Amino acid sequence: MATSSVSKGCFVFKPNLKKRKTSVPIEEYFNKGKNESEDSKLRFETYQLIWQQMKSETEQLQEEFNKNLFDSLIRFLQKSHSGFQKNSRDWGCQIKHREIPTAALILGVNVTDHDLTFRSLTEALQNNVTPYVVSLQARDCPDMKHFLQKVFSQLMDCHVDVESKEQEKDIQKKIHCSMDSLSSWYMNVTQMDPGKPGKKRTSSSQWQSPPVVLILKDMESFTTKVLQDFIIISSQHLHEFPLILIFGIATSPIIIHRLLPHAVSSLLCIEIFQSLSCKEHLTTVLDKLLLTTQFPFKLSEKVLQILISIFLYYDFSIQNFIKGLQLSLLEHFYSQPLSVLCCNLPEAKGRINFLSDNQCENIRRLPSFRRYVEKQAAEKQVALLTSDRFLKEETQSLLENLQVYHTNYFLILRCLHQFTSSLPKYPLGRQIRELYCTCLEKNVWDSEEYASALQLLRMLAKDELMTILQKCFNILKSSSEKQLGSSAKRIEELLAQFQSLDAEAKEEEDTSESQSKGLQKTDLYHLQKSLLEMKELRRTGKKQTKFELLREKVANFIDGLVREHLLPPETQPLHEVVYFTAAHTLHEHLNAAPRIALHTALNNPYYYLKNEALKSEEGCIPSVAPDICIAYKLHLECSRLINLVDWSEAFATVVTAAEKMDASSVTSEERNEIIHARFIRAVSELELLGFVKPTKRKADHVARLTWGGC
Question: Least buried of 61, 347, 366, 580, by fewest C-beta within 10 Å?
Fold first, then answer.
């Protein structure tokens, strides 16, 4: 676009809206690469539907977990502030009320989940306690000045509306931030007419003087001096500025006494609140999302182990676990064309009727379906491999069987967990997730742990056995399956037999008492004779009691249910439709190795850029590669100390091999200067990435920092 002007100036050209690039719909990305399919849009919509259902379920779980904690916390805040609400003047004069009410909120080391908890807590406090809630982090409060500024700015935002925000910001700049200014601000705000729109009203607005709640999200990270000064100053202004502190603690309440001396901690009235354990939270999330037939999507043993290992050994973060689950769901629907059938059963049956010829061939290629076909009669094999109509009918039947399999699987898994979780040393794991991973991996009855658990099961006492059987009966009686319904009746019969043993035991006790009375009347000779006979009978052949026989029946019954219903998913036809098994792909995304990725990018730029010009044989340096890649590959050939002059000459040799500059347009000196500048920039980038560093050992040398190609 040309312009003409007498003087130099800056010209603005508005962009043409018609030429603006349109954004690509997200579902179009399902067509990229080798996984092109006519069902890509439907698969993406199914993924979105399942994920939204899972997300709403996890949010509901989070609300349920936080409810008890928040309710107890709110009761504490209301109780702590009740004295000031009744009589603020007398309250300030009492020594007891010079202590700042403080809630120590123990949230655990899963720091990445704390933000979500504090957001929910802030919302709950604003709805039920006070509109004045301030949340601070240590990085924003290096000293007392910034601490008070953050408190003041957030308090100003709490009660102003949008129209008066600009005026309040101007006022805030003029006011010196101190506890006196905060106290005067609080008195002015609380004395405002309730009818004025200047104050944000919630359910707590019925309080004449609502407290100010200050949340320190990461209490351990705050500077000790800042905390001490603020607590000491605030305790002197409680009669006019009702403050309540909430400490977010990731480690232990002992940190309060480590950071604060006794003279300062004595000014706090501390009560401890413990959040739910993150391990218990994980168990509940698995129970609601994976150990159920509500969601058709499932994880294989290796994928589940990766997610659980990251959770247990890295961050204890439920949010990261759920993100990993979402990534698995997305990857499954992207990489598996038959995931279009991973939906509820009625919907899947309808979609089967509209499968294309390519999708039918995809079903025939599944390893589980091929194994299923091999077990059928010859005529049925031919029909399954040649007739699409017969294949669709059989696919519907197989999906129904898969649904029944999962229903029975999870019920029996819970029953087995009731037995194994009460055994000493927990041979099959204490948590149900451990038992679930074992059952996914192999036939659980072939393991030594299962044999040990079954042996311990045969040693349980009658009371323990009856309690566990009652729990199993409650689990199975909710099942609509005929087979498991008969199992529930069988458990009910076993419970009745155990109860009948109690009645028989009472009768035996009565008879033994009568016999003992008769023995007392006999002489010593007959008594010794009867005892010797009883001892000989026990020595020659030990006969099992009725309880031991019944306990053996229970163990055999449970063993039969396990062998029948806890088969690994790989044994079920079409399990690939609902199970995500690409553990290696998930591991690459979640457990990234930045050093290896960086080396691959610099050593072989074609791996990421997919530019055919960058392809080269091993050991060769493509002259058209980016400058940093050329410099990196050259530095791999050097020793510990790299001569910058030699490195620069080698760089210029590689670069000029590909460049065919016009001699008339660019002189030799200018070209050398350009190449030298490019080399300096490449070396600076390598230094920034940590591959080289300056050294004082030799002039014009740099030291190499990495070895072994990483």
Answer: 347
